[in-house]
């Protein structure tokens, strides 16, 4: 049966949800004719355009759900400024095998060395690879869990943060945590243990997490689970922000407290 009615063809494309082909049909057919494609090649060309549109929409939806606070990419990371970061190791992490395995990734180091940049960039790569991803700061996470616990809806919040294949928790240790944070964080880590991956950035060495959480025993239990299947990257070096200000002559090297080494046992 030959379909000659363009409205009927349009309706069928809509019913099949082939929106990219439907919206650009004349342009795509003209391009196929210009390239003198065979019928099979033209069909493959149309399908490729449809797949590309759906893939782009999937990625954009995933990025929206992830709630990244800014756009950062691996191409935009200055590896030359942070020699402690191995580009090959970052590229390997960007492949996402650690996420598929449910491993944890800890990015540790002083402020300004690019931990959040790498966390967001790796998170974006995870979305592109098809992994559901959610970004939050440690302070926002704990605040939500404490509020949910007080309201009797902790289980619902734990399910929310346990659902993504990758949960990124940024800036652990930068600000004081609320009372009860250690126990609530432990519950979340236990819920995700060997099921979903965690990416945590912190300016504190793991040996200081007992101080961060205000409970050395629970902090040890948290680390026991996080470090069981984990990748730990310790970034040493100057702050990007302070380096830029020094180059501009706004501060003197001696005035910036950048000489303190970050010790990771």
Automatic annotation (TrEMBL):
Q: Which InterPro entries match?
A: AAA+_ATPase, DNAC/IstB-like, IstB, IstB_ATP-bd, P-loop_NTPase
Q: Which GO terms describe its molecular function?
A: ATP binding
The keyword ATP-binding appears for this protein: yes
Keyword Flavoprotein carried by entry:
no
Signal sequence, start to end: none
The UniProt entry, under Pfam families, shows: IstB_IS21
Looking at the UniProt entry, the stretches that span the membrane are none
Going by the UniProt record, its keywords in alphabetical order are: ATP-binding, Nucleotide-binding
User: Which SUPFAM superfamilies would you find in this protein's record?
Assistant: P-loop containing nucleoside triphosphate hydrolases
Q: Which GO terms describe its biological process?
A: DNA replication
* AAA+ ATPase domain ranges (all copies): 101-233
Spell out the family assignment given in the record's similarity comment.
Belongs to the IS21/IS1162 putative ATP-binding protein family.
Matches recorded under PANTHER family: ATP-BINDING PROTEIN RV3427C IN INSERTION SEQUENCE-RELATED, CHROMOSOMAL REPLICATION INITIATOR PROTEIN DNAA
Identify this protein by name.
Answer: DNA replication protein DnaC
Name its species. Castellaniella defragrans (Alcaligenes defragrans)
């Amino acid at each position: 049966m030959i379909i000659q009615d363009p409205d009927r063809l349009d309706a069928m494309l809509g019913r099949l949800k082939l929106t990219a082909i439907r919206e650009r049909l004349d342009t795509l057919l003209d391009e196929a004719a210009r390239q003198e494609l065979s019928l099979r090649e033209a069909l493959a060309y149309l399908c490729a355009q449809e797949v590309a549109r759906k893939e782009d929409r999937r990625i954009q939806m995933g990025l929206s759900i992830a709630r990244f606070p800014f756009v950062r990419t691996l191409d935009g990371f200055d590896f030359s400024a942070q020699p402690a970061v191995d580009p090959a190791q970052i590229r390997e992490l960007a492949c996402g095998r650690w996420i598929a395995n449910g491993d944890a990734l800890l990015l540790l180091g002083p402020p300004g060395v690019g931990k959040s940049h790498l966390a967001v960039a790796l998170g974006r790569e995870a979305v592109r690879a098809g992994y559901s991803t959610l970004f939050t700061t440690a302070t926002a996470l704990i605040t939500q869990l404490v509020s949910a616990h007080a309201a009797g809806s902790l289980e619902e919040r734990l399910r929310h943060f346990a659902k993504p294949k990758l949960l990124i928790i940024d800036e652990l240790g930068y600000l004081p945590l609320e009372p009860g944070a250690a126990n609530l964080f432990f519950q979340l880590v236990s819920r995700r243990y060997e099921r979903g991956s965690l990416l945590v950035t912190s300016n504190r060495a793991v040996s200081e997490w007992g101080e961060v959480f205000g409970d050395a025993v629970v902090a040890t239990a948290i680390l026991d689970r996080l470090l069981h299947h984990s990748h730990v990257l310790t970034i040493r070096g100057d702050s990007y922000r302070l380096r830029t200000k020094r180059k501009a002559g706004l501060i003197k090297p001696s005035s910036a407290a950048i000489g303190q080494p970050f010790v990771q046992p």
